Amino acid sequence: MTRPTPAFRLARRCYGHLAGEAGVLLRERLEAAGLIRQEDAAYRLTEAGRAWAHERGLDTDDRDVAKHARCCLDGTEKRLHVGGRLGKSILTWLLLSQLVRQGKGRVLLVDDLDRLLRELLPRKPD
Fold first, then answer.
1. CA nearest 52: which of 71, 68, 30?
2. What pLDDT, in 10s, does the model give residues 97-120?
3. Nearest in space to 20 (alpha carbons), one of 126, 123, 94
4. From CA 15, how far away is CA 28, in angstroms rounded?
5. pLDDT digits (tens, 9 = 90+) for 21-71
6. Cβ-based neighbour number of residue 54 at 10 Å
7. Alpha-carbon 21 to chain mean position
8. What is this structure's pTM?
9. Cβ burial, residue 3 (10 Å; 0-12/13-18/19+)
10. Cross-strand bridge partners of residue 82
11. 67 and 87 in contact (C-beta within 8 Å)?
12. How far is it, in rounded angstroms, from Cα 122 to Cα 45?
């Protein structure tokens, strides 16, 4: 079995959503900001999270929470990242914003992870 490259570990596609270190860190930040909360094997947008997602044009239809934002176990990090339609819409937003670029195969190129998080997540009030 070959070891994953550093680029693969940092960011990659997993069923159309962001995985790797970047995906896990994003999920942690979304939870810390109070935008999502875990409910069993899925994430649900909070009221603040729904407003945040709506402002960015992300998928907010969580009537079927398991398909909307499932908890996806990251293959290299062995921690959870956001899957489902919400995860896919976040990755689409990141690609359209050019904060992430497609690399070779499943690898996603992230030039500045801190900038990605700053641009995607809401700003904290001063």
1. 30
2. 999 999 999 999 999 999 999 999
3. 94
4. 20
5. 999 999 999 999 999 999 999 999 999 999 999 999 999 999 998 899 999
6. 12
7. 10
8. 0.94
9. exposed
10. 71
11. no
12. 14
